[in-house]
């Protein structure tokens, strides 16, 4: 007896496995849904955004039912002694991963909404379900639990922070997802989850395009280990942002690195900087990195190279345990050519780069996108009950500005509303 009774079962397993590891914000996800459901697929918007979530509900539920039946069938065959190649066993495992995640997806979301840091009540049930399908994975259950929680948190943070139904907005959401998990989710689960802090994320783009929103979504979506003994997740995912242009070099260094008492005028006591107080799972966001003083660039380069620093006025070496996300609206390559930005510092920053699009790019070729964005802002500014009326008024007011380029981007549109 073989594990897969026919080509149809294997096809379902292949597509479910692809779906389990796909970037949810790219078009590929839709292709896998269509291949899984065939004629039962319910057409929906091409990209997953706030307004299309309900459109996808039917498809997600159908795929969950289909994959659950398949997982149970394959589990029972294995128990009866079915023969399986290594590839077939991997496919079975991927199907189970998809099924178990979907079973507890809402539970993970509720944890994030409540900011839960206590005992996780559904952990024992999760472990039982996983071991029921994959007894050989019992020792990995806590890690998989942590991965699932991270996936759910990351989806929610990206989904709610980066709005828009356009292809350009979808690509930005997909880039944020890849920044968190890399392009290979399997490798991430095996080893990269413990190493992503070593990679600095650089977010570039015009002013007013939401660079800090992207940074926050990435920072709050970091991997948090789960302790099977206490049934709790590790503390973490803190996010601290610093605008580097708002502070003098001395104050900036004090904020970042901390200082010893008496190290400069006004230093009345020892102070811990953000790099020191940032926990292992926290993130420090350095906004306007293109404006930073060359002397501070040298010290930050050391942090990125060796993950070490010293407080102002101190000789003790301290270790930075968190992640750095930086942002700028400047062309850093041009700044290097002008001698204003260190080349070695740039190459430490740019290993993972995200570009936030201008509002003009987001609206180009998307006739309904402006109204959609205005509707979103109106609800936030005036409340849901006034959103429709305010949207009509704003859209009527800006109708003569059909060719306007919105140089202030989303921030300008917000002020317009």
Describe the protein's architecture and organization.
The protein is globular and about 80 Å long. Helices cover 53% and strands 9% of the residues. A hairpin with a 4-residue loop joins strand 2 (226-227) and strand 3. The longest helix has 29 residues, at 86-114. With 417 residues, the chain is an alpha/beta fold. The strands form four sheets. A five-stranded parallel sheet has the order 4-7-10-1-11, with helices on one face. It has a two-stranded antiparallel sheet with strand order 2-3. The protein has a two-stranded antiparallel sheet with strand order 5-6. It has helices at 7-21, 28-37, 57-79, 86-114, 123-133, 141-161, 167-181, 185-190, 211-219, 249-257, 274-277, 294-306, 332-337, 343-349, 359-363, 369-382, 384-398, 409-416; strands at 201-204, 226-227, 232-233, 239-243, 258-259, 271-272, 283-287, 308-309, 318-319, 323-328, 352-355.
């Amino acid at each position: 007896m073989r594990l897969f009774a026919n080509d149809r079962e294997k096809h379902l397993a292949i597509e479910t496995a692809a779906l389990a590891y796909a970037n949810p914000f790219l078009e590929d996800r839709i292709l896998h849904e269509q291949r899984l459901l065939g004629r039962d697929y319910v057409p929906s918007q091409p990209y997953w955004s706030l307004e299309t979530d309900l459109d996808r509900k039917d498809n997600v539920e159908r795929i969950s039912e289909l994959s659950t039946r398949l997982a149970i069938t394959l589990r029972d065959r294995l128990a009866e002694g079915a023969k399986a190649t290594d590839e077939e066993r991997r496919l079975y495992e991927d199907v189970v991963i998809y099924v178990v995640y979907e079973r507890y997806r809402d539970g993970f979301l509720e944890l994030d909404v409540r900011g839960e840091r206590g005992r996780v009540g559904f952990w024992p049930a999760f472990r039982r379900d996983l071991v029921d399908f994959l007894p050989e994975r019992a020792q990995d259950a806590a890690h998989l639990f942590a991965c699932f929680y991270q996936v759910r948190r990351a989806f929610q943070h990206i989904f709610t922070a980066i709005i828009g139904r356009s292809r350009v907005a979808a690509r930005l959401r997909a880039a944020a997802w890849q920044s968190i998990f890399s392009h290979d989710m399997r490798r991430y689960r095996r080893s990269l989850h413990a190493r992503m802090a070593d990679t600095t994320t650089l977010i570039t783009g015009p002013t007013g395009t939401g660079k800090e929103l992207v940074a926050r979504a990435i920072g709050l979506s970091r991997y948090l280990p789960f302790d099977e003994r206490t049934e709790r997740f590790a503390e973490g995912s803190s996010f601290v942002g610093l605008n580097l242009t708002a502070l003098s070099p001395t104050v900036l260094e004090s904020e970042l690195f901390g200082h010893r008492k008496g190290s400069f005028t006004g230093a009345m006591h020892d102070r811990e900087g953000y790099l020191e107080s940032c926990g292992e799972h926290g993130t420090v966001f350095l906004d306007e990195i293109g404006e930073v003083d060359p002397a501070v660039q040298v010290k930050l380069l050391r942090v990125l190279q060796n993950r070490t620093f010293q407080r102002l006025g101190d000789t003790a070496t301290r270790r930075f345990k968190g992640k750095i996300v930086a942002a700028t609206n400047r062309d850093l390559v041009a700044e290097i050519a002008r001698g204003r930005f260190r080349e070695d510092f740039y190459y430490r920053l740019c290993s993972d780069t995200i570009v936030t699009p201008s509002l003009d790019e987001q609206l180009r070729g998307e006739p309904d996108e402006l109204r959609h964005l205005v509707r979103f802002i109106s609800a936030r500014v005036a409340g849901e009950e006034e959103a429709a009326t305010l949207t009509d008024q704003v859209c009527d007011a800006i109708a003569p500005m059909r060719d306007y380029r919105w140089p202030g981007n989303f921030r300008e549109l917000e002020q317009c509303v």
